[in-house]
Design goal:
Elements: E1 2-6, H1 20-32, E2 36-40, E3 63-65, H2 71-81, E4 85-87, H3 92-104, H4 107-110, E5 114-115, H5 120-127, H6 129-137, E6 146-149, H7 152-162, E7 166-170, E8 180-182, H8 185-198, E9 202-206, E10 212-220, E11 226-234, E12 247-249, H9 256-273, E13 277-285, E14 293-299, H10 304-313, H11 317-325, E15 352-358, E16 379-385, H12 388-398, H13 416-424, H14 430-439, H15 445-452, H16 456-472, H17 479-487, H18 492-499, H19 503-513, H20 519-528, H21 533-540
Parallel strand pairs: 1-2, 1-4, 2-3, 4-5
Antiparallel strand pairs: 6-9, 7-8, 7-9, 10-11, 10-13, 11-12, 12-15, 13-14, 15-16
Amino acid sequence: MKILLLGSGALKIGEAGEFDYSGSQAIKTFKRNGHKVILINPNIATVQTDSESFAGKNNCADQVYFLPVTPVFVEKIILKERPEALVLSFGGQTALNCGLELEESGFLKKHGIKVLGTPIEVIKNTEDREIFVQKLDEIGINTPRSIATRTPETAMVAAKKIGFPVIIRAGFTLGGKGSGFCEEESTFKKRVKEAFSFSPQVLVEEDLRGWKEMEYEVVRDGKDNCITVVNMENFDPLGIHTGESIVISPSMTLCNQEYQMLRSVAIKTIRHLGIIGECNIQYALNPNNPNEYRVIEVNARLSRSSALASKATGYPLAAVAAEIILGKTLAEIPNAITKVTTACFEPALDYIALKIPRWDLQKFRKVSHEIATEMKSVGEVMALGRTFPEVLQKAIRMLAIGSEGISDSPIKFETKEDVEKNIRIASPRRLFAIAEGLLQDFFSLEEIWEFTKIDKWFLYQIKRITDCTKKLSQKELSENLLRESKKLGFSDQEIALLTGKKFNDIRTLRAQYKIFAVTKQIDTLAAEFPAQTNYLYTTFHGEKNDV
C-alpha cells in the first residue's frame, strides 16, 4: 500500500518541531510493515526528512516533498503519486486541518483515498468545539460551560450570558493561538477580533483559573481495546498553556480515587468519540472539590505531550498508533520495553519525569514576557529522577540559562516588591521568584499559594530545596547534609559554590561517603535488558556514576 503522510508544516514558535518524533516513528513503522511512504513536510532540518538520520535507508520515506502542507500542494502530489491512503494524525494541527479541508472539498472521495486511523467525522467532532460539547453531553461528561460563536457580536452576547471573566478559545488552532482571558468588556472586543482572525469559530467559556490541569495519553485500537498509557500534571494551575507549563509525570497531587475517576472518564470519552490510535485528553480539576472536573479538550492525534509521554515511559506511542491504524490490535503489538508482553499493558513508573519549557523572549523587541494560553516557548527539556526536587533541579540545569538550580537564579531581583510582582505574574521568572521569596523569608508558603494558586505540595517541595540551600550556605558540610542535598538534586558545582569549596572537593567527599547515583540498580536492569543499557545510563546520569 502507498501511504501519504502529512507532516506538521513550517517551523514556527508553538508548532511543528514537536511533531518530528511522531512522524519519524510512523514512517519507520509503515516501512517495517512493507508499505511505501510519501512524506510532505517543508522542515528540511528534521529527522523524518533526513535520509541519513535513520539507521538504514529503508526506514526513511520513499519520497519526500519539501512543500507546504496545504490543500493546494497536497492535491497536486496526490494526483502525481496516486496514494491509496492518507495519514493525518502524525502532523499535529496543521495536518488535521489540511485533511479536513480535503474531505470537505470532496477531493478525497473523488480520488478514492482512504483516511487511516481516526475517521474524518470523528476528527470534526473533536475539532468543532460546539459539536464536541454536544457529544460529551450525550454520555454525561462534564465540559466547561461554553457557547460557540461565529461573529464578534454573538461572542459579546455569549460573554454577557456566561458572565465576566471569561476565556476565549479559537477552534481548529494549535498552540493556543487566538485564545486568552478577558476580565471585562473593554478587552473582550479586541481579543475576540484577534481570535476570529485565526479561526471561523470562537468559544466563549467560563473562567476556571486556579483549577488543576491534568492530561492523560490514551490508546484505542479498532477492536475497542483501550488503555491509558500515562497521566501528567501541570505545575501551573489552569490558565497556562500546557506547552508553557512545567509538566510532571506521573501526577503528584492526585489520590488514587481521583486518578481512577479521570482514567475512567478518559476511556469512556475516547470510546464514545470513536478515536482509533493515540489521543490526548485534558482536564480541569477543582482543587476544592476533587470530584468536580471538566474535560477541556481531546486531541485526536499525536500531540507534543505524546512525545514527552513516550520518552518518559519508554512506551512508543507513535509506533503503536501507526500499527493500530494499519489494523493491528493492542494484543498483537509486542511490548517495546519488556519484549515478552504486549502493548495492552499500561506502563508503571517508579520514577518521575519533568518537562520545563525554554523561552528566548529577550531576543524579541516589545514582546510581553507574561505567559498564558498562547505558546511562546521555543523548546523544552526533560529530566528523570526519583523525587520532584531532583528532577526540577536537573531540568533547570539542562535549560542552559546560567543556573545550577532553582536557588541559583540567573535573574537578580531588586526588592521584596519586585519579587512579589514576579511571583504574581506567570512568566519565565516566576519559578526563580518563588525560590527567592522563600530564601529571603519575604513570604510564607501560604502567601505564595495565594499569589499563584500553584498546588501547595509543589510549593512545599520548592521550600525543601531552599531550606537545604540555607543549610549549605552555612559552610558546614556534613555527610548527612551532603546526602540530603544530592537527593534534592543539587549538583556538585552548586554545592561547591554554596559551601565555598571546590568542585573536586565535593566529588572527593561523595566518594569518601559512598554517595553515588542509583548505578547499582541500573546495573541490575541492564543485565536483564542489555539493549536498554546505554539508554538507562544516559537517561539517569549522562554518564556512569555521574549525578
